[in-house]
Design a protein that fits this description.
- 51% of the residues lie in helices and 17% in strands.
- By secondary structure, the protein is of the alpha/beta class.
- Strands 7-6-5-4-3-2-1-8 form an 8-stranded mixed sheet.
- Strand 5 (172-178), helix 8 (184-190) and strand 6 (195-198) form a beta-alpha-beta unit.
- The longest helix is centred in the first third of the chain and has 35 residues, at 2-36.
- The protein is globular.
- Bound molecules: ligand C2E and magnesium ion (MG) (3 copies).
- It comes from Paractinoplanes aksuensis.
Length: 274
């Protein structure tokens, strides 16, 4: 009887794996077609200065219909489509940035941030693609921020070499979701970093003056001490913005200041920290 149940369970498990592989293949094929049909778009979320809330940078985030990048980006990483999609994202973001600089002058953002996955960093020729894209769009390297996660550069290797080469080109490197991966502080000794994006989890519950606030305080001391720039992620309330400012944060990003949209309002009028 027990053996029979185990067998049945195993069969169900195999069917489930099959379903998952089918789903993955289907999604992959749809993404391939969507890329050819030009159905991916970018939205841009402001990164603002505190306490005035004026736009300083923007982060580009990819969109594909109603599906979340948290779902389709990992699929694109596994099937390799991220390489081509990533090149499109980089080219589109840089071209948009240059157009904004021409259109908005002093109100245009100073920098644009592009998320880059581990697979892209490991791809031979990635740094050349970035250099060519900058040259092709006429954008100075210092205006670009490449966002990488701790996991992508953990363990060194080609990914870290790519980051070092980008940094040498003059491109800014941001560590995304900082504090949630492995060996967060250790990475600061081995990877050239310009911007620390302090994860939303430390911003949440700041007002409770518990461990979140202690860690957020320690992180701003580390960034200041190392001469890096800190960006607090996921700021949703005026209260969080005020607490962050009091702790010493001067850059923030989150729904309180603006959601990701196709064209943020570059008018020099900010959402104050409150
Ligand atoms: P991320 O790079 O950490 O981007 C921040 C995510 O938090 C975005 O989700 C953004 O919409 C969301 N967010 C911003 N402010 C708030 C807030 O106040 N509250 C809350 N709850 N969320 C906020 P999104 O656009 O769904 O992207 C999710 C993740 O997908 C990104 O996390 C990034 O890891 C990846 N991703 C998005 N676009 C790209 C891309 O162009 N290339 C690559 N390689 N990955 C991307
Ligand atoms: Mg990011
Ligand atoms: Mg982030
Ligand atoms: Mg995040």
């Amino acid at each position: 009887y027990a053996a029979k149940t185990t067998k049945a369970r195993f069969r169900r498990y195999v069917v489930e794996l099959d379903d998952r592989a089918d789903e993955e293949a289907r999604l992959g094929a749809e993404m391939r077609a969507a890329l050819d049909a030009g159905q991916f778009t970018l939205v841009y979320q402001p990164i603002v200065s505190l306490p005035d809330g004026e736009i300083r940078y923007v982060e580009s985030l990819v969109r594909w219909g109603r599906s979340s990048p948290a779902v389709f980006i990992p699929v694109a990483e596994r099937n390799g489509l991220i390489v081509e999609l990533g090149e499109w994202i980089l080219r589109t973001a840089c071209a948009q940035f240059v157009a904004w600089q021409a259109a908005y002058g002093e109100f245009a953002p100073e920098r644009i941030s592009v998320n880059v996955s581990a697979r892209q960093l490991a791809e031979p020729g990635f740094v050349e693609v970035v250099a060519d894209t900058l040259a092709g769009t006429g954008m100075a390297p210092g205006h670009l921020i490449v966002e990488v996660t701790e996991t992508a550069v953990f363990g060194g290797g080609v990914a870290v070499r790519a980051v070092e080469e980008l940094h040498e080109l003059g491109v800014n490197i941001a560590l995304d979701d900082f504090g949630t991966g492995h060996s967060s502080l250790g990475l600061l000794q081995t990877v050239p970093v310009d911007v620390l994006k302090v994860d939303k989890s430390f911003v949440d519950n700041l007002a409770m003056a518990g461990r979140h606030a202690v860690i957020a305080t320690a992180l701003i001391q580390v960034t200041d001490g190392l001469g890096l720039t800190a960006v607090a992620e996921g700021v949703e309330t005026a209260e969080q913005a005020r607490s962050l400012y009091e702790l010493g944060y001067r850059l923030a990003q989150g729904y309180h200041f603006g959601r990701p949209v196709p064209e943020p309002a570059f008018n020099g009028i900010g959402v104050a920290a409150g």
